[in-house]
Amino acid sequence: MNALEAGDLLALLAMTDNRNVDEHMADAWAWALADVPAPRAVLAAQQLIRAGEPWVDVKSIRRQLAAMQPTFERDVRSAKARGLIDAAWNPRTPLPVQVEQQLRTQQSTEWAGHNDRPDQITAGPAAPAVARAIA
Q: Which 3 state secondary structure label does DSSP give 21?
C-alpha cells in the first residue's frame, strides 16, 4: 500500500469516525501497511465497519486480515485449479488484483445457475454429476 492508497483508506474511515486525516497520517499508515495490498486493507476495514467496530486502526485491520486468511488460501487453491496462477504459488501470498477479479468472474458465472437444492442445479461444473446422481 502506498501513501495515496492509505489516504483513500483513511478518507473512508474518516466518514465513519470523523478522524482528522493529513499527509503525515497517510504516510504512517502506508509504512505500517506496506506489505498489504490496498484492496485487501479496504475489504478488512469495510468488514470491521459493518461489524460495528467504533475505531478502525492498523492493528484492527491486521487482526481482520489474519481472520480472513483461510478465505485467501481457499481463493489461491481455487485460482490454481482454474489455471489462473502457477501451481507453485505460495498459498499465503495474496492473489494479484487482476487474478482475483478473474476468479470472482468465473465463480459467479459457474454458480449463476445453482440453487439451494441439488435437483435444481442446471448450470456450472456440478450440473452433469448432479444429473447422474439424481437419475
A: coil
- Which single residue is written with the C-alpha cell 478518507? 11
Handedness of CA 50, 52, 57, 59 (dihedral sign): negative
CB 100 within 8 A of CB 108: no
> pLDDT by residue for the chain (135 residues), tens digit each?
999 999 999 999 999 888 899 999 999 999 999 988 888 899 899 999 999 888 999 999 999 988 888 888 888 999 999 999 999 988 877 788 888 889 888 888 776 655 555 555 455 554 455 455 555
Angle at 121 between CA 117 and CA 124, to 5 degrees: 140
Cell numbers given for 11: 478518507
| Conformation bin of residue 83: beta by default, left when phi > 0, alpha when psi is -120 to 50 | left
Q: Can you give the residue ranges of every domain in the chain?
A: 3-95, 97-135
Among 75, 74, 52, CA closest to 64: 52
Contact 63, 36 (CB under 8 A): no
Residue 101, Cα to own-chain centre: how many angstroms?
A: 10
